[in-house]
Amino acid sequence: MADDKTNAAAYWKANVRLIFGCLAVWAFVSYGCAILFRPLLAGILVGGTDLGFWFAQQGSILTFIVLIFFYAWRMNKLDEKFGLGE
Amino acid sequence: MSQFAINLLFVGASFALYIGIAIWARAGSTKDFYVAGGGVHPITNGMATAADWMSAASFISMAGLLASGGYANSSFLMGWTGGYVILAMLLAPYLRKFGKFTVPDFIGDRFYSNTARFVAIVCLIVASVTYVIGQMTGAGVAFSRFLEVSNTWGIWIAALIVFLYAVFGGMKGITYTQVAQYVVLIIAYTIPAVFIAMQLTGNPIPMFGMFSTHTESGVPLLAKLDEVVNALGFQDYTADVDNKLNMVLFTLSLMVGTAGLPHVIIRFFTVPKVADARWSAGWALVFIALLYLTAPAVGSMARLNLITTIYPEMSGQVENYEEALSNPIFYEDRPEWFRTWEDTGLITHNDLNNDGRIQFYNNAADFSDLGWEGNELEVNNDILVLANPEIANLPGWVIGLIAAGGIAAALSTAAGLLLAISSAISHDLIKTMINPKISEKGEMLAARISMGGAILLATYLGLNPPGFAAQTVALAFGIAGASLFPALMMGIFSKRMNSKGAIAGMLAGLVSTLLYIFTYLGWLFIPGTNMLANTPDNWILGISPLSFGAVGAMINFAVAFAVSSVTEEPPQEIQDLVESVRYPKGAGVAVDH
C-alpha cells in the first residue's frame, strides 16, 4: 500500500512537472513571442512582416498542436512506466 | 439552374444527411443521451469537438474581424485555440476519469455541496443561453441570404432540424451530425480561400499564400496590404498595439473561457479512455486549426481584394500612391457581387461629393484637396466570407456550399450548447437535486423534454434577441473563465480545497467579472445604465470589460485559497476522490449512478 502511494505520488509529480514545461512553452509563444516580445523580434522578417506577427497569426497555433500531442505521448509513457494506465 | 435552386439543393442535401443520422443514431439510454454511450473514437470526437466549437461567429465573422483589426485581433486566433492546451493538460483527462455526465456533476460531488452544484448550474445556463442566441440568429441570417426566406422562418427551420436529431439522438445523434457538419463547413470554408490565394499569390495553400508574394505587384502580400491601407489613412494591418497588458489579458480570458465552457468539456466525456481524452484534444485542435489558420489569410486577402476593386490602379506596382488613389471606380461600374450584397444592406454607398465615384478611406485622413468629402462606402465585416466566392468569380455550386457551411457551423454549435443546458436541467437539477429516485426511463423523458424546452427558449430568444445577445464574448467567456474554470482546476489540482473555499471563489470570480462588465456596458446590458463610458480612458489600467475574465479567474483562485486555508479540510472520501481522478487506472466507461 505504502509503495502504491509513493508510486502514485511520483507519477503525479512527474505529470505536474511535464505540465509546467508545456505551459511554459505555451505562454512563451503566445504571450511572449506574439505579444510582449514582438518589438524585440521586429528585426526578423517573415514574408513581408515580422516574426511576432507570424507567431500571433500562425506560429502559436501550430505550437499548441505540437504541445498537446507531445503531452499526450509523454503521458502515455508515464502511464506505462508507473503502471497506472488503463 | 438558378443560384437559388443550387443553394436549395446543397442545404437540402445536408439536412437530409443530418436527419438520416438522427434516425440511425437514436439514444436508447441516458448514457447514450448524455455521453453518446462513451464509446466515441478520439479522432471522431476531435472532429465533433471542432464543429461543436466553431460557431456561426467563427465561420462568418472571424475573417472579417481579422480583416478590419489586423494584428490587434490576433487575440481571437490565439485565445480560441490556446484554450485547448489547458483543456488537454488541466481538465479533460481528469474529468473523463471522474466518469460522470456533466460539469455540475463534478463540481457538486467534488465540493460535496449542492450549493456549489447549483452555482455551477446557473453559470452553465447563463453562459450557454447567451451563446446559443448568436447561433440561432446566425442561422437565420444564412437562411435569409441564401434561401430567400424571412429571418423568422430561417430560425424556425433551424430549430426544427436541431429538434429532430437532438431530442431523439441526444449526444449520440449530435456527435455524428457534428462530424458531418464539420466536413461540410471545412470544405465550404477552404475551397474559396484556395482559389483566392491562387489568384493573389499563385500559392494554393492560403496559410502560406498569406506570407508570400502578391503576384500583381511583386511585393510580399502583407507589405502590399500595409502600403495600401496606409495610403487610405487606415492603421497599418500589421501595426503593433499600445496596450499590451490588455491584449495579454484578453487572450488569456478567451483561453480560460474556452477551457471552462461546458459544451466543450462534455465532449471529452464521450471517449472510451483517459488517454483518448488527451489525444482527442489534440485532434480537435488540428481540425479547428484547419479553419483558424485559413481565416487570417482570408481576412488579409479579402481586405486587399476589396480595396483594389475600388482602386484598380493600386493593385499593381505603385510608384506614387497619391496618384493611384485619385481614380476610384465609378459607382456604375461596380462589380456584380457588390450589387447582390447592396440588396441586403450590408454594403452601402453614399455619394457625398456627387462625382459618381466610390471613395473609400478612413475619415480621420484628409483628402479634401482631391475634392473628397468623406468616406462613402460602408462594408459589413460579416460579408467577407459569405461573399468570397462571388468576389473570386467562383461557380454557383461554391456559393451553395458556403450556404450549407454557414448553417452547419451554426447548427452544430447550437446542438452542443442545447445538450449542455438540457443535461444540466434533467440530470443535475431534476435527477440529482430534486428527485434522486427518478427511474432511468423517467430521466430520459425529462432529458428529452428539457431539450425540447431549451430549443423553444433558444428559438424565442433568437427571434427576439435581448440586449445581452451581442455579449457572447463578455458574458459566456467571462463567466466560464472566471467561475467554472478555476473551480474545476482547483478541484483536481488541490486536495486541500474545500466546499466553502470553492463556493466563495466561484461567487467572487462571477460577481467581480459581472460588476466590471456592467460598469461599462450597463446593468444587465440595458443601454444608458452604465456608470462609466466604455472608453479606454475609463478602464482600470486600460483593461477592457472583455478582458476582465482573466482577472476574475485570479480573484476566484485568491479568494478560494484564502477561505479554504482558514476552514476545515475536506473529508477523507473527497480527498480519495481527488486521488482517483488523477490516475487513469480503473476508469472504465462513464458510470451510471
Automatic annotation (TrEMBL), chain A:
Transmembrane spans: 18-41, 53-73
Keyword Cell membrane: no
All copies of domain Sodium symporter small subunit, residue ranges: 9-84
Keywords in alphabetical order: Membrane, Transmembrane, Transmembrane helix
Superkingdom classification of source: Bacteria
Classification via NCBIfam families: Na_symport_sm
Protein name: Sodium symporter small subunit domain-containing protein
Organism from which the protein derives: Vreelandella nigrificans
Classification of source organism: Bacteria, Pseudomonadati, Pseudomonadota, Gammaproteobacteria, Oceanospirillales
TrEMBL record, chain B:
GO CC annotations, alphabetized: plasma membrane
Coiled-coil residue windows: none
GO molecular function: symporter activity
UniProt key word Plastid: no
Localization terms from the record: Membrane
Keywords of this entry: Cell membrane, Ion transport, Membrane, Sodium, Sodium transport, Symport, Transmembrane, Transmembrane helix, Transport
One GO term of the biological process aspect: sodium ion transport
PROSITE patterns reported for this sequence: NA_SOLUT_SYMP_2, NA_SOLUT_SYMP_3
Top-level taxon: Bacteria
InterPro entries: Na/Glc_symporter_sf (IPR038377), Na/solute_symporter (IPR001734), Na/solute_symporter_CS (IPR018212), Na/solute_symporter_VC_2705 (IPR019899), Sodium:Solute_Symporter (IPR050277)
Topology within the bilayer: Multi-pass membrane protein
Listed transmembrane segments: 6-25, 77-95, 116-133, 153-170, 182-201, 247-269, 281-302, 397-425, 445-463, 469-490, 502-526, 538-563
Family classification: Belongs to the sodium:solute symporter (SSF) (TC 2.A.21) family.
PANTHER family noted in UniProt: NA(+):SOLUTE SYMPORTER (SSF FAMILY), SODIUM/PROLINE SYMPORTER-RELATED
The protein's name in its UniProt record: Cation acetate symporter
